[in-house]
Amino acid sequence: MQQRTIGSRKVSAIGLGGMPMSIEGRPDEDRSIRTIHAALDAGVTLIDTADAYHRDAGEVGHNESLIGKALSSWSGSTSDVLVATKGGHLRPGDGSWTQNGRPDHLKEAAKASLQRLGGDAIGLYQFHRPDPDVPYAESVGALVDLLDEGVIEMAGISNADPSQIREAQEVLGGRLVSVQNQFSPAFRSSRPELDLCAELGLAFLPWSPLGGISKAGDLGSRHDAFAEVAEAHGVSPQRVALAWELALAPIVVPIPGASRPESIEDSVQAVDLELSADELERLSAETLD
Ligand SMILES: NC(=O)c1ccc[n+]([C@@H]2O[C@H](COP(=O)([O-])OP(=O)(O)OC[C@H]3O[C@@H](n4cnc5c(N)ncnc54)[C@H](OP(=O)(O)O)[C@@H]3O)[C@@H](O)[C@H]2O)c1
């Protein structure tokens, strides 16, 4: 499996997004565990999660617990697997997503995430989304404390614009390692953040890299260019989308979600799909409706 870099760690160039296994529409636990095991079997060493990936009130950390369970029941060694979690979002249980970016909350949430994930420290902790009610530097300041206390090994941010990326890097004294923003064939407006990450040497983790849970299956019918390139190579349009994202810059590490083993097994093969310069240009130039 091709490797990419997040801070001090090497990880598989394609990660696994855990959200579909814990929010509305999730499968039963057995299928989720088989999906995570399939990812590990295929060489995936990056799993993205968040304490807010749950459905009902009272089950905060559902996805972290699931990942912890899958890692401990997998037959291989998990020492090189980086679990990247997040704090700062809340799900009251009515389907909505609310926010709490207060430093005290983030520090408590990170410690609770560590308990669920197990181990000595969280590999990568990401501030999930800027909270309009809390100065950004204060929220990011919680990551400084968590790094200094050894609760987390690396710090990242999510849903940040270029000025917030620069501000976070300053508050963290150069210790910011990653930015996770929405990016896919259908959503390209975070290209400036991707380019800034390339300039600063930060990993860029596209979230919903296939367009999101409800649209990912139809990627080919929504994007003709991706469907045509996929047909020419005899692969899925989803695999083409991930290969295109990987080709944009060596700091890109897509984290496609999955709730079925077959999905992640197909997605990881994007690392072996070589697209020509003409194909890449065509995919990048695709006009969106
Ligand atoms: N930071 C944030 O604010 C934020 C927001 C949203 C998501 N995320 C993270 O990003 C991850 C990915 O985003 P996402 O799950 O929302 O959307 P996504 O990755 O665009 O789409 C996920 C869906 O794609 C399907 N899929 C995956 N690989 C496929 C393939 N090769 N062929 C056909 N279908 C395939 C899966 O179907 P099956 O379910 O049938 O396997 C899955 O439900 C999340 O899991 C989460 O970790 C972060």
TrEMBL record:
Pfam families: Aldo_ket_red (PF00248). Keywords: Oxidoreductase. Residues 14-284 form the NADP-dependent oxidoreductase domain. Coiled coil: none annotated. This is Aldo/keto reductase.
